[in-house]
Amino acid sequence: MNNPHDIRVTKADSFAHIQRDITKDGICVLTFDRPDSCANIFDRVTLEELDRYLNLLEQDAGLKGLVLTSAKKSIFIAGADLHSLADAMPEEIDDLIGFGQKVFSRLAALPVPTVAAIHGAAMGGGCELALACDWRVASTEKETRIGLPETQLGLLPAWGGSTRLPRLVGLPKALELILAGKVLSGQSALRCGLVDALAPKEHLLSIALHQIERGKPHRCAPWHLNNWLVADLLDLKLCGDLKRRTHGHYPALFKALEVVLESVSSTEAESFAAEREAFLELIKGETSHNLVRLFLQTERAKKVVGPDLTPVQRTAVIGAGLMGAGIAQWLAARGLPVVLRDIGPEQIGRGLATIAKLFDEGRKRRVFSAAQMRAGMDRIQPVVGEASLANVDLVLEAAVERMELKKQIFQNLAEESGPRTILATNTSALSISELAAATRAPERVVGLHFFNPVHRMQLVEVVVGRQTSPEIVQRAMRFVRQIGKLPVRVADRPGFLVNRVLMPYLGEAGRLFEEGARVDDIDAAMIEFGMPMGPLRLVDEVGVDVAQHVARTLADAFGDRIPVPKVLAWMVGKGAFGRKTGAGFYTYKGKHIATNITVHDFPTTLEARWLSRQELQWRMVLTMLNEAVRCVDERVVETPEEADFAMVMGTGFAPFRGGPLRYVDHVGAEFVVAEMDRLVALGLKRFTPCELLRRMAASGEKFYQKEEINGNLEKRSA
Ligand code: NAI
42: which strand partners? Predict the structure, then answer.
């Protein structure tokens, strides 16, 4: 398409973060382009620049329209600068929210038509900027994602988003988007009325300039959707749904619901004031504090740091079972060729079928097109027995969990592979150092512990053996980031970090069952705590046999402190392996899941029969806290942040609590120790608090002491 507007006519004076161009038709184009960054974000300086441009634009009698766009490859505006928000004082936050509202309202009030030309992520503040424009045009590219994800951070849209979105798309849709923190493709945004037109990236600007010709829209809020009756009905339905879903743990959802519902019967000014007040209240709370920090930690984990190492280009996966197939599919989907090796055609066939199914599910969810799926399958090269691995940059072993077998595989791998090939194992609990010592290249052996299901779990533990070279560790960390997963570096200790902390908790759930607590009560107690599923249900998902195997490895290492619950062997004896056999603690028939009444044939004792859910919950939680503290003490991970991050990402540990160590800080080590001592006094020796917990209880020290002093919690309470 020709561009009749010929935009690059006047290169007007520009500021550092936003450039200004004027077309010969008198349309101003403001291009966001944050220096030295691949992303645009809204910080104070960027808002001030926009404010200063608005001074000029308001006085420009010849102005015909305004287009806002971005110079970045895959980001329109990624949202507010969370780093500065996380460290700001309440007054500063209040001021920033007020300032943002004022700037966006000035934009909305310009007498000329305004258009947001969106290519890439328009999140949070970026989306709110677009909402303050008269029109929105989005690119058709997959990088374009538009939404208000603030509730995921325990906050709500407060730069006008909670007010303008319902006025644009109606209450039901606005609430659906805001409460779920949903992010939409350009196509979906068009369908729900959030954007007005789509264009391929290369025509985005010219379509946006055309849009100016449509003038200022005479929009009126969709009254059939935005009236008190609809608001009351939605309140009734959604409030109950939210309480059931979140057990009241996410206050931002209730605040957002309240503010958005009220916005339709308030003036804009009243609604902005409500947004601002609610935002301030939420950001002072612990939930948003924890969620924002987890988000920042995730962003850090995604960043590739260190020397510029050549990315991995060719891979091999040994073992085409559950994990091997899952990993091979993930690698192939990210464009990497994979040699997939197993012991026989039958095993390879099963693996390929799993991979094809995973691709097909992705296609149905529109993650891949049919062509991408075919290309992904073509990248898998199935091999039975030997294959040349000389040109492979990384081999990942995912054969059965037996040390002798793995040693043999690694001895051969060290011979077959090139001198720089990373030799990685996906073992859940075996010692990397022992495995490495059996090979001729121990410095190249590293653990890459993926979690099941591979395509859903973002975390990968990078396990450093005694002899693993620093270069291999760096390359392995980089590889994990290259394939879009989040690495956490852990020491080669039994169970590494995640399973080490998880198993005592699952074990405690098993013991409570053995002592007469009901399956439903045990699981409900932990769902109420904020876990995504109960521990017994999780055992079923992992596989009762797999759980038993990992539990044994930990029991071998730690003895009585982490005993294996007897019920696991009893269930394995009855063929109840969990979900994969249709029965475990629950029965699985299609989508129907019910408690398996036959597990109650297990000869339980009565000690835990009448424990309250609160007590059940507390016992299970304490085991996790104690073990997580030990891991930090033993330097399984370098920092408390890493431990918390890994537990949230690897097990879904109640994210709003920020992880087990933040939770220890929250309730206080002194209280945790007192509670554990109470249980020890009841004869439950396994609750003996670890040394570090005792020391912290005595000194009042916290894991996040520094942050509390320097960060805003301290300032908040001042
Ligand atoms: P699986 O039993 O589903 O698959 C193992 C595959 O390895 C089988 O296809 C088998 O034929 C193959 N195999 C056996 N010997 C071989 C050899 N010499 N050469 C090539 N292939 C060989 O096991 P799964 O569950 O996939 O586990 C694999 C590894 O991943 C284990 O080390 C396990 O501990 C670990 N892991 C398992 C998780 C899970 O949830 N199942 C989670 C994280 C790690």
Answer: 80
pLDDT-flagged residues of the chain (< 70): 1-13, 304-308, 706-718
Ligand 1 close to Cβ of residue 289 (< 6 A): no
User: DSSP states of 510-545 as a string?
Assistant: HHHHHTT--HHHHHHHHHHHT-SS-HHHHHHHH-HH
Helix (H, G, I), strand (E, B) or coil at 206: helix
Report residue 73: phi and psi, to 5°. Answer: -70, -40
Q: Whole-angstrom Cα distance, residue 625 to residue 670? A: 13
650: Cβ contacts below 8 Å, ≥ 6 apart: 451, 457, 459, 461, 497, 498, 502
Report which DSSP code applies to 80.
B
Tens digits of per-residue pLDDT, 365-405? 888 899 999 999 999 999 998 778 989 999 999 999 899 99
Q: Read off the DSSP letter of residue 633.
A: H
- 8-state DSSP, 64: -
Boundary of a domain, candidates 436, 461, 490: 490
List strand residue ranges (DSSP E) for 327-389, in order.
338-342, 380-384
Dist. CA 398 → ligand 1 center (Å): 5
601 CA distance to ligand 1 middle (Å): 32
Find the domain containing 98 and state its range: 9-284
pTM: 0.90
Contact present, 364 and 320 (Cβ < 8 Å): no
514 and 395 within one domain? no
- State yes or no: is 247 an active-site residue: no
Number of domains in the chain: 3
Q: Of 263, 284, 305, which closes a domain?
A: 284
Q: What percent of the chain has pLDDT over 70?
A: 96
Which pair of structure tokens corresponds to residue 477?
Answer: 């960390």
Mutate to test the pocket of ligand 1, among 317, 323, 341, 434 (most ligand atoms within 8 A of CB): 323
Task: Report the C-alpha gap between 465 and 552 in whole angstroms.
Answer: 21
* Rg (alpha carbons) of the chain, rounded to whole number: 28
Task: State whether the beta carbon of 385 lies less than 6 angstroms from ligand 1.
Answer: no
Q: 612 and 584, same structural domain?
A: yes
Q: Are both 604 and 517 inside the same structural domain?
A: yes
Q: How far apart are CA 418 and CA 126, in angstroms?
A: 47
Indicate the SS3 state at residue 154. coil
List pLDDT tens digits, range 55-107. 999 999 999 999 999 999 999 999 999 988 888 899 999 999 999 999 999 99
Please check whether residue 702 is in contact with residue 668, taking contact to mean a CB–CB distance below 8 angstroms.
Answer: no
Here the CATH number for the domain that contains residue 245 is: 3.90.226.10
Same domain, 264 and 330: no
- How many CB atoms sit inside 10 A of residue 364's CB? 9
At 133-183, the pLDDT tens digits run 999 999 999 999 999 999 999 999 999 999 999 999 999 999 999 999 999
On whether both 658 and 687 belong to a single domain, the answer is yes
27-32 vs 18-22, strand pairing mode: antiparallel
Compute the distance from residue 268 Cα to the ligand 1 centre, in Å. 59
Give dist(CA 308, CA 311) in Å, integer. 9
Residue 365 is part of a domain; what is its CATH number?
3.40.50.720
Q: Are residues 35 and 171 in the same domain?
A: yes
DSSP 3-state of 337 = coil
Q: Of 220, 273, 227, which Cα lies nearest the Cα of 97?
A: 273
Q: Which atom of ligand 1 is nearest to the CA of 350?
A: 9
Residues 520, 481 within the same domain: no
